[in-house]
From TrEMBL:
Signal peptide: none annotated. This is ROK family protein. It comes from the Bacteria. It comes from Xylanimonas cellulosilytica (strain DSM 15894 / JCM 12276 / CECT 5975 / KCTC 9989 / LMG 20990 / NBRC 107835 / XIL07). Residues 1-27, 341-361 are annotated as: Disordered. Belongs to the ROK (NagC/XylR) family.
Amino acid sequence: MTAIDGSAGGRPQGNVRRLPPPVPAPRPTVGLDIGGTKTLAALLAPDGEVLAQARLTTQRGPQAVLAVAARAVEGVVRQAGLDVAALDGVGVGVPGLVGYDDGTVRHAVNLGIEGAPMPLARLLGERLGVGVVVDNDLNVAALGAAHLAPEAASRPLDLAFLALGTGLAAGLVLDGVVRRGTGAAGEIGHVPIDPAGPLCPCGQRGCLELYASGTAVERLWPTTTGQPAPVELLAAVTAGDPAARAVWDAYADAVAAAVRMLVLSVDVRHVVLGGGVAQLGAPLLDAVQAALTRQAARSPFLASLTMADRVLLAPGRVPVAAVGAAVLARSTSALAVGPLPAAPRQHHAAAHTPRDRAGEP
């Protein structure tokens, strides 16, 4: 009798070459960006292409957040004619204090998740039947921006995603890897730049967040038309209002200071502007680059760093944070459905952090 491998049947004679087990073909992943008002989903192909997108209204409370997240995943895979079982995993970006190692979320006030930590990774994984990983929304936004950068395919990137939202903070990707630290990496919004300045909610005075966030624009240029303050400010600048021009230039200088802080501390190749204020688009980018150029004109050292050339806008055609969450899902090994093993340590954000406020305007 002859065996399938061509040898004589029965007990193997001598050394028998055995084929290695087949390597599973890469499969798509889904990323979610769960914000206080909307939940965005992106289906990412193994080659990095965004195959489908979805947007749902976020609902408050742990069970409602879970239900919307599950519907977003199911809906975005259905658009592509797939089933959830075809996924390699799901990544989720959320505001609040995130236990990256155990997939828990707490103090996500905008989502109505307070009190006991919510085991979001375990609950969503059990509901969908796939592995789930959860991270802070700024971290996944930085991953998404790095994935979408033009040179992403050729080398690991150093990149900061600077969120100009209610607060001010940055997500960091260094050598292609998210820098989490012990929870405070990228919290530049709470670096004081004027010790005699106004009181910050964190307890310090003159923090950068008070000058370069979306809230800073609201304080410097209170809205009178019901439009977002940044939109109204830009309209007044365009109309030639000198007071608006002074506020606009001061704001651009403050954002430029945030860019300078990131470049001088971790020398990132790109600083990507995101968050609510960044939706102003090219006028904001031009103003920040002009401020950096003015500042560099007084310093040969700063001029040598070409900071203005490093600043980019987050792409508007795709949900950057959702794409980053999908990248995280495919790059995280041993994703588990159900309870995760105890981790040796857990990363937490600072007790008072703009990461809970920076993602949306």
